[in-house]
Amino acid sequence: MQIQDLPYPDPGVPDARSGPRFLWWLFRNQLSGQLKSLAWGLLHFASVASLPFCVGVAVQAAVDRSGGRLALAGGLLALACVGNAVGDGFLHRAAVTNWITAAARVQQLLARKAATLGSALTRRVAAGEVVAVSTGDVEKIGWFVEALSRFTAAAITIVLVCVGLVVYQPALGVVVATGLPVLAIAVLPLLPRATRRADTQREKAGRATELASDTVAGLRVLRGIGGEELFLDRYRRASQEVRHAAVRSARMWALIAAIQVLLPGLLLITVVWYGVHLAREGRITVGELVTVYSSVMVLGYPLRHFEEIAMAYSFSRPSAKRAARVLSLDRNTDAAGARDAEAPTGDLYDPATGLLAPAGLLTAVVCGDPDAAGRLAERLGGHAAHEGPSVLLGGVPLDELPLDSARGAVLVQDKDPVLLSGTLRELLDVPASGAVDPRDALDAAQCGDVLAALVQVALDTDDPMDARITERGRSLSGGQRQRLALARSLVTDPEVLVLDEPTSAVDSHTEARVAGGVRALRARRTTVVFTSSPLLLDRADRVVFLDGDTVAAVGGHRELVRTEPRYRAVVTRETEDEAASPTEVPDADGALRGSKTLNDDGALRASKALDDGALRDDEVLHRLDELEDLEELEEIEETA
């Protein structure tokens, strides 16, 4: 595999049972690249190791005044230098290729897992941990995979040099062959402590990254409540903990590095002392002494790869463990029994709650707990975070469908949808049936002011479809981002569209028009809307009220407000005292059923609610315009 061939057509199915198993799986899947790196590494290290022999021959030739052997030594030295240069260059190329391809494979696996799990991923694993795995951890995993072949080449070279020295000069060769293994394993007792300190550093760094990620994501809310300094102090403390842990880890690795310098120095002193003693006795020649001495010095280079592989494994093991944890997560589905048939059609039914969304109707769902609404919306899309009975579409469990079929049949728009950077045309260029024109979807979502704003800030185009949207739509207001995301969902035209609070950041006037636009565009299509807004509830074909995790009532909006106190409390935001007091029942001709009331602080206590009567849009807007303090109410709603 070459870098230009990335990305992989199929990154494979990883062995995510543990961190070491995952590392071994990566190594096996890059076997050809590892063998290539090993071959170039052997050439490089062998060339380096042969230099002392060439120098020894040259020295001895000079002592003996032999021009022929001196020329031979020069030729061997030139050949060793060429082998060293070629081997080093291609070893670096092969090693970097292994590193990048291993990191790319891990990133593809993580991206595929994120696409499979969707929003369920961040409910099972902290967002900061996912960021840490997909950035720093990927690099460390690639480092170990790359360093393994170089370490193997260095170890083989050391063994061959020791055997060669024993054969070339047994007296000194035995000393070297005995001392080098001691040097190689001397740091092993320190590795567990160094690994634990590295793990602690990684853990604290992951928590700091998670805190930073959560703080940035909620920065606007923090500014609204004046909590920036509080979270900044928390991040400072977390950052200092990371620094202290990094210093402790660095001290241990500095000690290991010092030992790696001290022990080879002691071995070198021993070889020189003993070699001089043997040379005085005439048992070895000066050239042989120089050869052994130079070999010990040169072997310090491959010996450093023992320290590197220990560091690489210590740093990559917790990283591989975290990556394996993410990759071991799976969609709650019976893959073995997955159906190959086309996506079914029909009623959408959740056995866990008893929620039924009839085919072709607009069903509004009211939940007292907003978090429960989000979890149920994910369940309806087949992305449940916990085990449980599968949602049925036309009687077919979504968990038994292939992932593509399930997502093509049911689309879930989260409460906080993400807008990617690019032009508006690119934003709306999503997999779709083709039955809904993008401009019709924009009209239904009431995006006229959004288009005007995009054209106003665009410098090079008058067509709003070619206007650029900044990252996550930060240049737009919350309501504008929400409506663009709704238009994107409408363009896809899925069999079942699930919307979680699609108008929570939209003002009353626009919300009424959005409700009518969605109903008209999604006619004869199944649509489920999680909301407590009376304007949306008024347009629904049926309303389902969930008390806890079970369906408590089903009916029309006006009927449920009149007959179900719990539903009325959620929709009109009644307090317990207000719920206990007599409630005025609207007359039959249709009037505002929910009042807008301000408490002593001027805050909204009861939201707008419209009768199920035959109010036209212009009548609705006329009555809303006549409400007292409407501008103040809208400001409160936008702030909320």
TrEMBL record:
Q: Where is this region: Disordered?
A: 572-603
Task: Give the source's domain of life in one word.
Answer: Bacteria
Which ranges of the sequence are coiled-coil? Answer: none
> Where in the numbering of this chain does the ABC transporter domain appear?
324-573
Predominant subcellular localization, coarse grouping? membrane
MF terms (GO), sorted A to Z? ABC-type oligopeptide transporter activity; ATP binding; ATP hydrolysis activity
Q: Where in the cell is it found?
A: Cell membrane
Residues in domain ABC transmembrane type-1? 37-306
Recorded GO cellular component terms are: plasma membrane
Q: Name one Pfam family in it.
A: ABC_membrane
List all membrane-crossing ranges: 38-63, 69-91, 147-168, 174-192, 253-276
What CDD domains has UniProt attached to this entry?
A: ABC_6TM_exporters (cd07346)
Q: Which UniProt keywords apply?
A: Membrane, Transmembrane, Transmembrane helix
Topology with respect to the bilayer? Multi-pass membrane protein
From the Swiss-Prot or TrEMBL record, give the protein name. Answer: ABC-type multidrug transport system fused ATPase/permease subunit
Protein's organism: Streptomyces capillispiralis
